[in-house]
């Protein structure tokens, strides 16, 4: 989502692409089979992907990148909270009405 700073190691883009592909693959597998394991994979990889840019907040980067990183972190946390009920539910089990 965010461009890597010029001083970033060359593998930084590759890590982002791999995390994105693994997240999408986990979500597709979950969508097709309702597998909790697939959803867990997607959630864990998305959480790691959301946390990695936080390491760069101490570096001298533009303020807009810091804000975008924090927004990405918040959106990731909200997304994980929203899928939390599905993480504990077995495949084929209906969602509880609240």
Automatic annotation (TrEMBL):
Record keywords, A-Z: Membrane, Transmembrane, Transmembrane helix
TM stretches of this protein: 12-31, 38-58, 64-83
KW Transmembrane helix (keyword) present: yes
UniProt-recorded name of the protein: Uncharacterized protein
Lineage: Bacteria, Bacillati, Actinomycetota, Actinomycetes, Pseudonocardiales
């Amino acid at each position: 989502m965010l461009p890597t700073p010029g001083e970033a190691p060359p593998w930084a883009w590759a890590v982002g692409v791999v995390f994105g592909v693994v997240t999408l693959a986990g979500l597709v597998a979950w969508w097709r089979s309702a597998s909790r394991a697939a959803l867990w994979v997607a959630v864990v990889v998305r959480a790691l992907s959301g946390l990695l840019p936080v390491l760069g907040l101490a570096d001298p980067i533009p303020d807009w990148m810091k804000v975008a990183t924090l927004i990405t972190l918040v959106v990731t946390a909200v997304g994980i909270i929203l899928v939390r009920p599905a993480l504990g539910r077995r495949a084929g089990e209906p969602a509880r009405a609240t």
